[in-house]
Amino acid sequence: MSLGFTLASDYFYVTATGEFSLDDAQRGFLEMLESVAVAKPTKVLFDGRMLIGEPEMIERFYYGEFAARSVASFASRGVSPATRFAYVLEEPMLDPDRFGETVAVNRGMIVRAFDNLEAARAWLAAEP
Is the pLDDT of residue 73 over 90? Predict the structure, then answer.
């Protein structure tokens, strides 16, 4: 899995390509947070429409838990806990029930998963 980063006018745009594995996804999330700590955006748009794979339910749980815990731990490095994350994915990477999203939100992360890039941008643009 590889990531590309672009600082857009009002959000940090991350593109992901390749095959999903939980280890790669967690490493990639930390890499993304490192960049967020430097650039200090408060909105992140993660475009994973080019990812392939079918994460198992337990992997969705572990990723959501890891992401929320990581955002909280990066607060000391300048990542605001109020940073909003919009994920754009396609099934089967996107879980229609949004289980991973629910896990992360329940642990304090501000995140939402979408199947549509424009809907994700609109959510990020809306006032929290």
Answer: yes
Q: Two tokens at 20?
A: 């999903």
In angstroms, the Cα distances linking 7 to 10, 19, 36, 75 are 8, 24, 10, 20
Q: In 10 A of CB 76, how many CB atoms?
A: 8
Q: Which domains does the chain have, with CATH numbers?
A: 2-125 (3.30.750.24)
Query: Cα(121)–Cα(45) distance, rounded to whole angstroms?
Result: 7
Site of tokens 């079918």: 54
pTM: predicted TM-score of the whole model, two decimal places: 0.95
Per-residue pLDDT at 95: 96
What spatial distance separates the first Cα and last Cα of the chain, rounded to whole Å? 31
DSSP helix/strand/coil, 116: coil
